[in-house]
Amino acid sequence: MDLEYTAEELAFRDEVRAFLREQLPATIAAKIKHNRRLTKDEHVLWQKRLHQRGWAAVHWPTEHGGTGWGPIERHIFDEECAAHHAPPMLPFGVSMVAPVIIKFGTEQQKQQYLPDILASNVWWCQGYSEPGAGSDLAGVKTRAVRDGDHYVVNGQKTWTTLGQHADMIFCLVRTDPNAKKQEGISFLLIDMNTPGITVRPLITLDGEHEVNEVFFDDVRVPVANLVGEENKGWTCAKYLLTYERTGIAGVGQTKSLLSHLKTVASEQIVNGRPLIEEPLFRARLADAEAELMALEMTNLRTVSAAADGGVPGAESSFLKIMGTVLRQEITDLFRRAAGPYAMPFLSEGDDAVGPEFAGAVANRYFNYRKLSIYGGSNEIQRNIIAKAILGL
Amino acid sequence: MDFKLNDEQRMLEETVGRLVRDAYGFETREKNRNSALGFSTEMWQQLAELGLLGVPFSEELGGFNGGGQELMVVVEGFGRALLLEPYLATVVLSGTVIDRLGSDEQKAQLLGSIIGGEQRFALAAYEGQAFYDHTQVTTRAVANADGYLLNGSKAVVLHGDSADQLVVIARTSGDDGDAAGLTAFVVAADAAGVSRRGYPTVDGLRAAEISFDNVQLAAAARLGDEGAALPALEAAIERGIVALCAEACGAMEVACDQTLEYIKERQQFGVAIGRFQALQHRMVDMRMALEKARSMTILAACSLELPAAERQRRLAAAKLIIGKTGRLVSEEAIQLHGGMGMMDETAVSHYAKRLVMIDHQLGDQQYHLQRLSALLAVDDDVA
């Protein structure tokens, strides 16, 4: 056993660091650090810089323009990006729909979609969840009825993250209402500019516009946009979920958050001394640090086991639960570090009230409640572990 | 990065695995526990014959020259069987102090007798009012014409009731809590002036209160320089923490397995209770605790040779997580076993007791949380 990185891995880390120092704009890093929302242009700018370096698609095979990196390189890359406050990679195109297209798509679909995903020319969003189908995806009701060379789509999607910017949406639609739950579903790619699509913002409890409802009213979608076979979309959906779960531990981001929290706590003066010297607060920091060490080691064990190829199995559900619970704990500590200055509510563009870090701490605390809900709620993750690992 | 065991480590793992499977079923363990000594001398001899009593010591002395990883592999196997024999007391704790401080002659003689299984040792370090602070030492050794005169008392000395020899930490100078002034001595358990009150512990082991009333020691009983024992004592505690973490992993794994098996079989309301989601989720949390414990044990086992600050930070974090996860696994194992979990005859209750008592050895979670708090560093924010 050897927990240290090899010389090659350390050299790779230096390469990533050098790139981040040169290419990541300070204004963007500052926004990420202080939990401010990026504009669409800022997101795209960063994705394009990664693309120029050949690092836009960290887990694609090299033949399609990916990095071909193994799990350990991806882990190092994630960690460095988070430590430098790089924007999190937008997953919808590059990590969600693209692997499905690579695995199940036609040659024509690959040529049509992959280059634009790689270059961030097209913004994708995910159309999985519906008002009646959250974690229970097999409950989708949005209908697609074949009409010549088209499907006619009717229904509603919800929780569509950053769908307000999207050019394309990938959807699970019901193509056979009489089949058993998972068997009548298909995987469709839909142009957001097609007549009949309406996007309506959903404002979340932190006052932000991050998610949307998307309505489909007789939307005509070419049959050529079907990925895989009709009624076999569940296979695509499951495959996508395994990709969604890579990097799910969020170790890099958690390290970065905790490191920032410690800096903040040593600058905040409470009763004449730094908050970090207050024993109860310090003990919670220390406890979070121990939990982070356990999370990181568990993640490395999983990464290392996956290094021979393939994607992590049900073990990644442990990482999702552990990682999200810890990040939520840290956002609670941030809120406490701000004291009464956790209270002012600031819209985008308002001047800060109180310490700079404090402006968004309560928003983030509330926003991060989503971590244990999305991507398969933590309860669903427990169901997965119970079934797949414990055989219950 | 590499999490795989090497060939030698796998061999050790197999040796221990085979031994406890063949010779250490739960009934045998219970028979040994209820014997006068509280463990089996035959088993101790078997450990010696297999070379397991020499794992941490150098090859010149007849040992295996193992580090933290080898210790982890061996003791995890012991934890699966809830081994009662005084491996921690003799090999890990006393052995490390002797190994760090002893002269070549002392090491050859004392470690030789440990490796061969001829003598068992106990480390008499902690005192009654000191909780887990190993620098709170009031036991005094005062130099005299024949060597040293030892006075004082030691608390909850693990396997102190049956040890042939005691490694005693005494103060030769300084005050309570001082880092300097601690000296280690080897004291025969039957020396004049040594009195022992042995007793069983909650988890089926044995321990003793030991007092020293004008015990005359020869100068040759001293290990290392006068007043300089602290680093060796801390090295022993750190090795001990790795061993306890590993033992906890082994015990947690069995507690999880037995609980899983039980909820798959036990029928209530016409179905196996493992069908109930409320229980499934608790079982998942137990398994997640085991994964965390295992991760931290690996981290601790691989950290013994690091520079002090990082090593101490990792070991404190590991023992903290072991304390937290051990309690969770124990309580949930009992709860999911229902009334059966409350029974002495149900093996899982013994695993639960050992796991909870591990938190009372070499610092509990509160103690290690404080240590980790003290070591908390504000690191560089990159951007």
Summed up:
Chain A has 392 residues and is an alpha+beta fold. Chain A has helices at 7-23, 26-33, 40-53, 71-83, 91-104, 107-118, 233-244, 251-267, 279-306, 315-338, 361-367, 378-388, and strands spanning 124-127, 143-147, 150-157, 168-174, 185-191, 197-203, 209-222, 226-227, 269-270, 273-274. Chain A has twelve helices and ten strands.
List keywords for this structure.
heterodimer; A: 392 residues; 4-stranded mixed β-sheet; 4-stranded antiparallel β-sheet; 12 helices; 10 strands; B: 383 residues; alpha+beta; 11 helices; globular; Acyl-CoA_Oxase/DH_mid-dom_sf (chain A); AcylCo_DH-like_C (chain A)
Biggest sheet architecture of chain B: 4 strands, mixed
State the shape of chain B: globular
What structural category do the secondary elements of chain B indicate?
Answer: alpha+beta
* Order of strands in the sheet with most strands of chain A: 1-4-5-8
Describe the structure.
- The complex is a heterodimer of chains A (392) and B (383).
- With 392 residues, chain A is an alpha+beta fold.
- Chain A is built from twelve helices and ten strands.
- Chain A has helices at residues 7-23, 26-33, 40-53, 71-83, 91-104, 107-118, 233-244, 251-267, 279-306, 315-338, 361-367, 378-388; strands spanning 124-127, 143-147, 150-157, 168-174, 185-191, 197-203, 209-222, 226-227, 269-270, 273-274.
- In chain A, strands 1-4-5-8 form a four-stranded mixed β-sheet. In chain A, strands 2-3-7-6 form a four-stranded antiparallel β-sheet, with no helix packed on it.
- In chain A, helix 8 packs antiparallel against helix 9.
- Chain A is globular.
- In chain A, 44% of the residues are buried.
- By secondary structure, chain B is of the alpha+beta class.
- Helix content of chain B is 49%, strand content 16%.
- In chain B, the strands form three sheets. In chain B, strands 1-4-5-8 form a four-stranded mixed β-sheet. A four-stranded antiparallel β-sheet of chain B has the order 2-3-7-6, with no helix packed on it. In chain B, strands 9-10 form a two-stranded antiparallel ribbon.
- Chain B is globular.
- In chain B, 52% of the residues are buried.
- At the A-B interface, helix 2, helix 8, helix 9, helix 10 and helix 12 of A face helix 7, helix 8, helix 9 and helix 11 of B.
